[in-house]
C-alpha cells in the first residue's frame, strides 16, 4: 500500500511539474488566472460598492465604448505577430510594433469625434470622459505590445508575473481614488496613467530580456512575407472587431436602451460567470500555442482536430461543475456583498449557463490557428448581426431578461458553430 502511495505521489509530482514547464505552461496560466480573476472580482465588488449604481453604469459604459473604439486600431497586427513568433519568426515583433505606432491614431480620431458629439449634444460629462480616453489609445495600448513577445515565445512564467503586476498597478489606485473622490474623471485619469507607467516599463524590460532589440532582422523580411502579414492582420482585425462588438456592443445597447442603472445591473450580472469562465478556461490559452507548434512540426490537421475534440470533452465536465457551483453560490454573494443589488441576483444565476460554452472553445482555437479567418469572419458576422439586433429588440420589449438571454446565446454561438464545422470535416 505504501509503495502504491509513493508511486502515486511521484507521478502527481511529475504531472504538476510538467504543467509549469515552458513546453506546457498550463500551470502558470492557471495560476495567473487564479490570482487575477479574484482580484478582478474584488475590483468589481469595491467599485460597485463605492460608486452609486448610476455612476457604476457610466463607468462600464465608458469601458465598453472604449473597447469598441479600440478595434479601429486593427488588433490583428498584434495577434498575427504573436502567432508568427510562436512559429519562430521573431522579426514580426518589430514589424507589428511599427504598424501599431501608425494605426493607434485611428482610435484617437474616433474618440475625438465621439467626444465632440457629446459636447454638441450638451453632455459635457461624457464628452470630457471620452477626451480622457485619448491618452490611453495613444500610449497605453501601444506599449501593451510586450505581450506579443512573451506569448509568442511561450514564456508563461514571465507572462503570468507581468500580468499579475499589471493588474495590481493598474486597478487598485483607481479604486482608492474612487473611494476618496467619488469622481469618475479622476478614476479614469488614474487608471490610464498607472497602466501607462507599467506597460512602458514592461515593454522595454521584455525587449531586453528576450533579446528583441535587434531591429535589423527586419531587413531579412521579404516583401511577400510582409504583404502576407498585412493581409492576414487585416482579416484577423476584422475578426477581432466582430468579437469585440459582440461583448462591448451588448453593454452599449443596454445603456442606451435601458439607462445607466440597468447597465450597472447587467454588467454586474455577467461579471461572476465571466470570473469563473476565466479561471476554468485559463489553461486552454496554451492550446493555440500547441496548434502553432504542431503546424511548425508539420503535424496533420486531422491530429489537430483530434486534440481539439479531446480538449472539448475534458473541459465540458470542468465547465459543468463550475456552472452548478456558481449558480448555488450567487444568491449568497449578492446578499453579503451587494445588498443594494440583491433584487437582481436572478439575472446572474441564469447567465451562469454561459460557463458551459468553454467546452466548445478549442474548435474555435483550431480554426483560428490554421488561419481560417474568412470562415470565422463569416460566422461572427452572422451571429453578431443577428445577436445585436435580437438584443436591441429584446431589451426594448423584455427589458433586462431579454438582454441576459441574448447574451448567453452570443456566448455560445461562435464556439458551437466552430465545433460543428470541425466535426463535419472530420
Automatic annotation (TrEMBL):
Chain segments annotated as transmembrane: 27-52, 58-81, 102-120, 126-146, 158-179, 185-206, 233-255, 275-294, 315-337, 343-363, 375-394, 400-422
Membrane topology: Multi-pass membrane protein
Pfam families in the record: Polysacc_synt
GO cellular component: plasma membrane
Keyword Ion transport set for record: no
Chief subcellular location: membrane
Keywords: Cell membrane, Membrane, Transmembrane, Transmembrane helix
This protein's record includes keyword Ribosomal protein: no
Cellular location(s): Cell membrane
Identification of the protein by name: Polysaccharide biosynthesis protein C-terminal domain-containing protein
Originating species: bioreactor metagenome
Amino acid at each position: 500500500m505504501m509503495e502504491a502511495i509513493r508511486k502515486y505521489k511521484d507521478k502527481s509530482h511529475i504531472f504538476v511539474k510538467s504543467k509549469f514547464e515552458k513546453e506546457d505552461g498550463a500551470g502558470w496560466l492557471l495560476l495567473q488566472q487564479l490570482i487575477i480573476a479574484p482580484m478582478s472580482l474584488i475590483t468589481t465588488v469595491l467599485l460597485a460598492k463605492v460608486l452609486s449604481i448610476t455612476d457604476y453604469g457610466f463607468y462600464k459604459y465608458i469601458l465598453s465604448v472604449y473597447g469598441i473604439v479600440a478595434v479601429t486600431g486593427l488588433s490583428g497586427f498584434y495577434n498575427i505577430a504573436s502567432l508568427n513568433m510562436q512559429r519562430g519568426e521573431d522579426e514580426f515583433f518589430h514589424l507589428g510594433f511599427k504598424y501599431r505606432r501608425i494605426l493607434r491614431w485611428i482610435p484617437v480620431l474616433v474618440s475625438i469625434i465621439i467626444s465632440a458629439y457629446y459636447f454638441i449634444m450638451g453632455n459635457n460629462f461624457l464628452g470630457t470622459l471620452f477626451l480622457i480616453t485619448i491618452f490611453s489609445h495613444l500610449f497605453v495600448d501601444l506599449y501593451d505590445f510586450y505581450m506579443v513577445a512573451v506569448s509568442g515565445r511561450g514564456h508563461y512564467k514571465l507572462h503570468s508575473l507581468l500580468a499579475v503586476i499589471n493588474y495590481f498597478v493598474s486597478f487598485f489606485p483607481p479604486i482608492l481614488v474612487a473611494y476618496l473622490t467619488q469622481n469618475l474623471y479622476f478614476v479614469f485619469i488614474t487608471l490610464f496613467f498607472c497602466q501607462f507607467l507599467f506597460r512602458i516599463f514592461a515593454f522595454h524590460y521584455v525587449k531586453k530580456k528576450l533579446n528583441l532589440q535587434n531591429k535589423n532582422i527586419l531587413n531579412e523580411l521579404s516583401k511577400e512575407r510582409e504583404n502576407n502579414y498585412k493581409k492576414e492582420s487585416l482579416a484577423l482585425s476584422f475578426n477581432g472587431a466582430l468579437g469585440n462588438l459582440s461583448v462591448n456592443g451588448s453593454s452599449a445597447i443596454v445603456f442606451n436602451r435601458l439607462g445607466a442603472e440597468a447597465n450597472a445591473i447587467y454588467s454586474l450580472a455577467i461579471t461572476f460567470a465571466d470570473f469563473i469562465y476565466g479561471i476554468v478556461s485559463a489553461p486552454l490559452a496554451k492550446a493555440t500555442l500547441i496548434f502553432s507548434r504542431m503546424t511548425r512540426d508539420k503535424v496533420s490537421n486531422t491530429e489537430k482536430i483530434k486534440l481539439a475534440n479531446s480538449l472539448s470533452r475534458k473541459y465540458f465536465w470542468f465547465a459543468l461543475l463550475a456552472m452548478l457551483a456558481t449558480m448555488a453560490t450567487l444568491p449568497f454573494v449578492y446578499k453579503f456583498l451587494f445588498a443594494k443589488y440583491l433584487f437582481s441576483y436572478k439575472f446572474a444565476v441564469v447567465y451562469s449557463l454561459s460557463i458551459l460554452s468553454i467546452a466548445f472553445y478549442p474548435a474555435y482555437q483550431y480554426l483560428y490557428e490554421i488561419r481560417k479567418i474568412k470562415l470565422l469572419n463569416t460566422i461572427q458576422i452572422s451571429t453578431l448581426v443577428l445577436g445585436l439586433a435580437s438584443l436591441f429588440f429584446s431589451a426594448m420589449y423584455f427589458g433586462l431578461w431579454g438582454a441576459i438571454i441574448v447574451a448567453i446565446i452570443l456566448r455560445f454561438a461562435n464556439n458551437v458553430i466552430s465545433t460543428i464545422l470541425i466535426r463535419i470535416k472530420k
